[in-house]
Amino acid sequence: MNDNYTSIGNIFLLKEPMGLPKDHIQKIEDLLQGPLPKALKNYYEWCGGCKDMNSAQDFLLTLDGRYGHYAFKNFLHPDYFAFYVENQCVYVWGFKKTEGYAKGDPEVYESSDLGKTWSPTGNSLSQFLNSHAYMNFIFSMEYFNEDFVDATEEQVQQLKEQFPIIENVGSPTTTTNNNNNNNIQYLQPYEDTIIMIQEGVDEKYELYYSSRSKQNFKKINRIILRMTGFEFDSESESNSDSD
């Protein structure tokens, strides 16, 4: 697995590359009229064919719209090359064509007005792709909290002290109207489990969490709900432990 994407490959259980076909990648370069940035080409080669990684919440653009109707032909812009789109098509993300290949891992820009204006996100391309992969993991696993849990800053700090923070990952949320790169963070309590911490309103945070394992999901669910004030009766505790 490519070094930039080893962690996301592991959490999606990719033992070998699950990329887009070589001819598909070549046609994308033809569309760009030049070589792709190394960070994006590596992602296409290693992870571009993993459906859950690229379409559970927001979507990787492809030539054939294999992840829904989100195909390159709908997002062509003269100065920016769009490669990812938000699930309602309100936001689209791309890189400057003049920066792409030369920088290798260029900064990602976003547009919310059909490509008329673009704003920097503060994320490199590899940071952005990693962050979206973790977000898509949250929404693609069988075991996840369907409604987010509200938490205070103190409670979030408790989680950060208890579980490792995933480093060098950008924020996948929009930054046009909230220009910071820290409004989402990820924790990884277990190798098959992710917690997403998103800044909310009124100094609150929203917690989303997901796991491939029912047992580990129950552990995290219990920790978070107890921490945020929910109570478990003795019967539910016993049933949870016996599953």
UniProtKB/TrEMBL annotation:
<protein>
    <recommendedName>
        <fullName>Knr4/Smi1-like domain-containing protein</fullName>
    </recommendedName>
</protein>
<dbReference type="InterPro" id="IPR037883">
    <property type="entry name" value="Knr4/Smi1-like_sf"/>
</dbReference>
<feature type="domain" description="Knr4/Smi1-like">
    <location>
        <begin position="19"/>
        <end position="131"/>
    </location>
</feature>
<dbReference type="Pfam" id="PF09346">
    <property type="entry name" value="SMI1_KNR4"/>
</dbReference>
<dbReference type="InterPro" id="IPR018958">
    <property type="entry name" value="Knr4/Smi1-like_dom"/>
</dbReference>
